[in-house]
Write a structure and sequence with these properties.
The protein is mainly α. The protein is built from six helices and no strands. Helix 2 packs across helix 3. The radius of gyration is 24 Å and the shape is elongated. The N and C termini lie far apart (61 Å).
């Protein structure tokens, strides 16, 4: 839900204003502490922002799926870091060659 709000540029205070409640009530709803508020938020998002509730209630990822996604991200970051390191090392070798001349 939070990522959906962030992607839509909707903050908790905006939701609170539209639902005429305090921001803390919205926070409780988003944190699973108030189901009624959560459902009011979902209804508001559907009505005013065209959000499909199926996007909110989609099947949660399994722990394995989540870990696989995190691992893929780490691998991509590692590959990028390796490439940067390779470029730095090549630059250092080039500097060594220049200093020897």
């Amino acid at each position: 839900m939070r990522s959906l709000l962030k992607a839509s540029n909707i903050d908790q205070q905006t939701l609170a204003d539209k639902l005429s409640v305090n921001q803390s009530v919205i926070s409780n709803g988003l944190n699973g502490k108030n189901e009624k508020t959560f459902l009011r938020i979902v209804a508001l998002l559907e009505k005013e922002y065209g959000v499909n509730s199926a996007d909110i209630f989609e099947e949660p990822k399994t722990i394995s799926q989540g870990l696989q996604e995190q691992l893929a991200e780490i691998k991509a970051e590692l590959a990028a870091s390796r490439q940067e390191l390779k470029q730095v090392l090549e630059g250092m070798e080039e500097l060594k060659g220049m200093l020897k001349k």
